[in-house]
Amino acid sequence: MASIISGTAAAEGLLADLTRDVARFSQVHGYAPTLVAVLVGDDPASHIYVRKKIEQCRKVGMESVEHRLPADCSEEDLLALIAALNADERVHGILVQLPLPAQIDSGKVLDTIDPRKDVDGFHPVNVGRLSTGTGGLVPCTPMGCMILLRSVLPDLKGKQAVVIGKSNIVGKPVAMLLLEQGCTVTVCGRHTRNLAEVCRDADIIVAAAGTPHLVKGYWVKAGAVVIDVGINRIALDDGRSRIVGDVASDEIGHAAAFTPVPGGVGPMTIACLLLNTFRAAEAQSLVGV
Ligand code: NAD
């Protein structure tokens, strides 16, 4: 019977450790690690995400500040705010909640964040560091995937890994992290032929396609570990809806272990954001801003 890798439990453990480390940091330095979240516009989902991140920061003893800008704000105003946050030594992490309104070039905005404060790990400098294995801040969801994977497979060397999905925020960085750990990695997208066959050879499958129940039981080798990143809302017959992953989890009892949805990778993402903020504050405290 496959074991379930609880992201909820892992995130709780990570946050408990972080609470202790933040208390020590604050005592030594006389200030707490500080995350600033920038929210543009009125997207209700973005408001919820930002509120959760701020609440969680405060729970572990970090400072967190929200900057709200109107939906019609100019790119220039947003870039000016980021420049001010970059220069403010009391700010250790900057997060710009995506998506941004159409008049703003998201790429330009993310490129403007000081890479040392880029706690989402999306800046090209951090992307480059990840791909060259030279440190930097790692995107939060991929980091969460790796923590969960290594909780059941501490040594990844020589494993065959398949990543389904090649987005810049999940698929590609997960693939880089797996490579770094010594896996042989196949990255798949919409145009991959024979996806089922490709998966059947894998010791590890990371599913990040955003397609409900894409990975069927017969795609998964006996004893494989499956990390399900997908978050998909599906309609039920009775008019309600429910969140499911990219994996048909009720068909993979022959796997060694898998992450459930919900309660798998999801809870790790915010925990890793906080970990990145702590690491950013530590690094800045050593060199000064
Ligand atoms: P995305 O849409 O940017 O990328 C999806 C990728 O999957 C693309 O590269 C696409 O080519 C590939 N893909 C789509 N359908 C496919 C198919 N049928 N076969 C093979 N490849 C296919 O999405 P994303 O931002 O990378 O997110 C992926 C999923 O992960 C979504 O469900 C998203 O909600 C979820 N997600 C979860 C978390 C979390 O905290 N757990 C964080 C980010 C994203």
Automatic annotation (TrEMBL):
Keywords: Amino-acid biosynthesis, Histidine biosynthesis, Hydrolase, Methionine biosynthesis, Multifunctional enzyme, NADP, One-carbon metabolism, Oxidoreductase, Purine biosynthesis
Family matches, as PROSITE patterns: THF_DHG_CYH_1 (PS00766), THF_DHG_CYH_2 (PS00767)
Domain Tetrahydrofolate dehydrogenase/cyclohydrolase catalytic: 5-120
One Gene Ontology MF term: methylenetetrahydrofolate dehydrogenase (NADP+) activity
One Pfam short name: THF_DHG_CYH_C
One GO BP: methionine biosynthetic process
Binding residues for NADP(+): G165, K166, S167, I231
One GO term describing the cellular component: cytosol
Presence of the UniProt keyword Repressor in the record: no
Protein origin, superkingdom: Bacteria
Swiss-Prot/TrEMBL catalytic activity: (6R)-5,10-methylene-5,6,7,8-tetrahydrofolate + NADP(+) = (6R)-5,10-methenyltetrahydrofolate + NADPH; (6R)-5,10-methenyltetrahydrofolate + H2O = (6R)-10-formyltetrahydrofolate + H(+)
EC number: 1.5.1.5, 3.5.4.9
Protein's UniProt keywords contain S-adenosyl-L-methionine: no
Pathway: One-carbon metabolism; tetrahydrofolate interconversion
Limits of the Tetrahydrofolate dehydrogenase/cyclohydrolase NAD(P)-binding domain: 139-284
PANTHER family the UniProt entry points to: C-1-TETRAHYDROFOLATE SYNTHASE, CYTOPLASMIC, C-1-TETRAHYDROFOLATE SYNTHASE, CYTOPLASMIC-RELATED
Function per UniProt: Catalyzes the oxidation of 5,10-methylenetetrahydrofolate to 5,10-methenyltetrahydrofolate and then the hydrolysis of 5,10-methenyltetrahydrofolate to 10-formyltetrahydrofolate.
Assembly and binders: Homodimer.
Similarity remark: Belongs to the tetrahydrofolate dehydrogenase/cyclohydrolase family.
Record's protein name: Bifunctional protein FolD
Native source organism of the sequence: Sphingobium chlorophenolicum
Originating gene: folD_2
